[in-house]
Amino acid sequence: MSRVLELTRELTARPSLTPDDAGCQRLISERLLPLGFSVEWFLCGEVSNVLFTRGRGSPSLWFLGHTDVVPPGPEELWTFLPFHPDEKGGELYGRGVADMKGAVAAMTVALETYVQQQPDHAGEIGLLLTSDEEGEAVDGIVRVAQELERRGRRPDHCLVGEPSSLQTLGDTVRVGRRGSVYVRLQVYGIQGHTAFPENLDNPVHRIAPFLADLVGLEWDTGDAEFPASHCQIAYVHAGTGAGNVTPAHIELLANFRNGPGSPIESIRSRFEELLRQHEISDFDIEWDIMGEPFRSEPGKLREAVVGAVGEVLGVTPELNTGGGTSDGRYIAPLGSEVVELGLINSTIHQVDERTPVADLDRLFATYYDIIRRILT
Q: Per the residue annotation, which of 68, 91, 134, 340 is the catalytic one?
């Protein structure tokens, strides 16, 4: 069994449901500290964040990952128990093997191998981990980034191990991410008897044409790396349960995934202008910004990642900003170049999450080559 596979299995066997790290970071600490890595813990409530670094100065390359996982769902539907990883048909099954304990294991072994072969390496290498990526992410990397900014510290380059690949390992590399913002809207009316419309103000009728216009808006057209920004309605609720009574209010939850062409303030302004156009004035609104869009301009890390993927994996990756959000959104504003490369994402968050066993060592070899290209 390879070192990467063995470590992936060890990490996966720990039920680290957000925000519980379940000892994953301690396990990695036990491997890296004897190799001369320094460790700093950033503990925030139930969340565990840790930074391992070795060396100093430029160039500096940090890996970024998370040890927490989403709930497994009904265990009886899994081929193997979600926290008892096992193999079938050349694939490793278990909650978190792809998102993203396999990548964390590959990062760790790549760092170990590089230090053992280059004990007097130039620059700084590091690994930053959190147990609060899959949840609300309020005490994870965002807190660490705030402290790093206060100290005036950042890596030159940050490689995020989120599962970016679509069909084959390395076919997709993220060079940025869309932003994500939620809006919760409550529109108020006057409850009444359905037989007497003159005595009521039905907020469902009021919001219906507004919704039609909202989902039909073109926010922007995107660009070569960002898809067009869009809005999706996630939740609508109204009613008293009685068929002859109109509701007094309706609640709406919508999510925007936006690129640089539609910054948060632009979305907010256009949304509220649409409310005015439909003469909706009695409402409460709450905005929750999960992350601003970011894009890392081409630099040494992008060059190293594309070069390593081509040489080690024999693939020319597509560079894009697809997918959801990632913790890279907190590191990029520090001025670091951020690129994402990880395992295939087709089964993440599903029952029977799995990854090809061979991809674990192939990802390790790619990460190792990226370190070599940056630090040598």
A: 68
Q: What is the pTM of this model?
A: 0.89
Distance CA 104, CA 97 (A): 9
Q: In what order do the strands lie in the sheet with 86-88?
A: 86-88, 91-93, 354-356
In angstroms, rounded to a whole number, what is the distance separating the alpha carbons of residues 39 and 294? 28
Q: Clarify whether 133 is annotated catalytic.
A: yes
Region 184-199: what's the mean pLDDT?
96
* Angle, CA of 82, 127 and 370, to the nearest 5°: 100
* One domain for residues 163 and 191: no
**Residue 45, both tokens:** 């409530």
Q: How far apart are CA 26 and CA 29, in angstroms?
A: 5
Boundary residue ending a domain (269, 291, 313): 291
Residue numbers of the domain that contains 236? 179-291
d(C-alpha 294, C-alpha 279), whole Å: 35
Last residue of a domain, one of 291, 323, 344: 291
CB–CB of 93/353 below 8 Å?
A: yes
pLDDT in tens, 275-307: 999 999 999 999 999 888 999 889 999 999 999
The H or E element containing residue 92 is strand 91-93
pLDDT at position 278 is 96
- The overall average pLDDT reported for the chain is 96
Q: Which of 112, 124, 133, 162 is catalytic?
A: 133
- Residues 117, 64, single domain; the answer is yes
Residue 174 pLDDT grade (very low, low, confident, very high; cuts 50, 70, 90): very high
228: pLDDT strictly greater than 90: yes
**Number of compact structural domains in the chain:** 2
Length of the chain counted residue by residue? 376
